[in-house]
């Protein structure tokens, strides 16, 4: 019986602008394709980056455990969303639902209640905002994001909440 061998296609230089990242991905592609050539297509591939390998084993296990818990939470939120709205949520809706629940359904800036049906099915009614503007902090983490009404987000613009609420830096 002939095993199916799926190989990774060459990268397009215009897809990845960073030359270091491009080279790392090109080398990874060569290794994966060599594995496919020798042993056939793998069921899965687990990559550990050099920054991960330098961490102690127990720290890597802790990170893995946190990621698994995060995935379980995402699945619970997805199921709750499906139960409430009878719809399969998109990734954005899952994220917004998580923020909506954490904030008790209220806008982080105006403290006005955000109607759930409009939050998830009326584009522009509510938006995810970076508390400290991404252009100033480069922080795209969950701890720098809140759910706000679209109007509040547009009014806030590229300011911190402190600046937006009428105070200067």
List the helices and strands and how they pair.
Blueprint: H1 19-39, H2 50-53, H3 57-85, H4 91-102, H5 116-121, E1 126-130, H6 134-137, E2 145-149, H7 150-156, H8 161-164
Antiparallel strand pairs: 1-2
What do you see in this structure?
It is built from eight helices and two strands; from the N terminus they run H-H-H-H-H-E-H-E-H-H. With 169 residues, it is mainly alpha-helical. Helix 3 (57-85) packs across helix 4 (91-102). The chain has a two-stranded antiparallel ribbon with strand order 1-2. The chain is extended, with a radius of gyration of 22 Å. The mean pLDDT is 87. It has helices at 19-39, 50-53, 57-85, 91-102, 116-121, 134-137, 150-156, 161-164, and strands at 126-130, 145-149. It is 51% helix and 6% strand.
Offer a concise description of the structure.
This protein has helices at residues 19-39, 50-53, 57-85, 91-102, 116-121, 134-137, 150-156, 161-164; strands spanning 126-130, 145-149. It is mainly α. The protein starts with 18 loop residues before the first helix and ends in a 5-residue tail after the last helix.
């Amino acid at each position: 019986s002939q095993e199916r061998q799926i190989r990774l296609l060459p990268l397009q230089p215009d897809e990845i602008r960073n030359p270091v990242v491009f080279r790392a991905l090109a080398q990874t592609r060569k290794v994966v394709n060599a594995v496919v050539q020798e042993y056939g297509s793998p069921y899965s591939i687990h990559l550990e980056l050099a920054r991960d390998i330098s961490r102690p084993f127990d720290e890597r296990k802790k990170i893995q455990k946190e990621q698994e818990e995060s995935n379980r939470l995402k699945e619970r939120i997805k199921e709750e969303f499906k139960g409430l709205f009878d719809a399969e949520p998109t990734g954005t809706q899952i994220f917004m639902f998580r923020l909506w629940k954490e904030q008790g359904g209220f806008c982080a800036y105006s403290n006005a209640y955000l109607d759930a049906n409009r939050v998830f099915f009326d584009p522009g009614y509510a938006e995810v905002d970076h508390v400290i503007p991404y252009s100033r902090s480069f922080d795209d983490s969950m701890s720098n994001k809140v759910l706000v009404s679209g109007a509040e987000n547009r009014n806030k613009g590229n300011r911190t909440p402190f600046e937006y609420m009428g105070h200067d830096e």
